[in-house]
Amino acid sequence: MDITIRLFAGARDTAGTSSTVIQLPHGGTAKLALDQLLLHFPALTRLVAVSRVAVNLDYASLDTVLQPGDELAVLPPVSGGGI
Amino acid sequence: MIRTRRGRAWISDEPVGADALARELQDERFGGLVTFEGVVRRHSRGKRIVFLEYDAYPGMAERQMAQILDEAATNWPDTQILAVHRKGRLEIGMVAVAIAAAAPHRAEAFAACRYVIDEIKQRVPIWKKEVAEDGESWIEGD
Lengths: 83, 142
Prior knowledge:
Chain A contains three helices and five strands. Chain A has helices at 9-15, 30-40, 45-50, and strands at 2-7, 19-23, 52-55, 58-60, 71-75. Chain A starts with a strand and ends in an 8-residue tail after the last strand. By secondary structure, chain B is an alpha+beta fold. Helix content of chain B is 31%, strand content 42%. Chain B contains three helices and ten strands. Chain B has helices spanning 18-25, 58-75, 106-123; strands spanning 2-4, 7-12, 32-39, 43-44, 47-56, 80-86, 88-90, 95-103, 126-132, 135-138. In chain B, the strands form two sheets. Chain B has a five-stranded mixed sheet with strand order 1-2-6-8-3, sandwiched between helices. In chain B, strands 4, 5, 7, 9 and 10 form a five-stranded antiparallel sheet that branches. The A-B interface holds A 6, 8-10, 12-13, 50, 54, 57-59, 73, 75-83 and B 37-41, 54-57, 59-61, 63, 85, 95-97, 117, 120-129, 137-142.
């Protein structure tokens, strides 16, 4: 199934893209999706290790089972709020 | 933009400020009105900043901000809150985030405003890149 992975901030700069589509078997988890992502973008290894994930706009755990068309996002430690 | 039970939260590409938010919350019900602005400073982590850039995951950021406002409405039921965060390039002195909280009494207004900015900094998917004279870096965490 197609899973879209959104990349932000340092992850986007490192990968050179803000979005990529990976192939995952049905029943694949967020963790598997990240493993696939790192096969294509090994330079993201450090950032992925310290990042949280979101699935369809909500924080999710790595064992979340993904559905076709889901959007996964790699979220490095956030730094909004000004100051 | 997401409207909550008692407020609104959004991400903006245009300049923002707390004054406009405060004017909107003026109401005869509210005896306390508290505002906060997060402003871009010249110095950070020993570096002289040239400008900042904020990246955001807009759909999720607004959703998280709206959840924060809902939590504040639960904790302080009579408050009304507006919260907006910038994305894009910001110069020194510009406002990155603005919050206004109004309540019948000041205790709730202060508490709600504080809660919202603290929670935004913890969990809203927004990232700051500091562009300094000798290089740039995405800041990880607070």
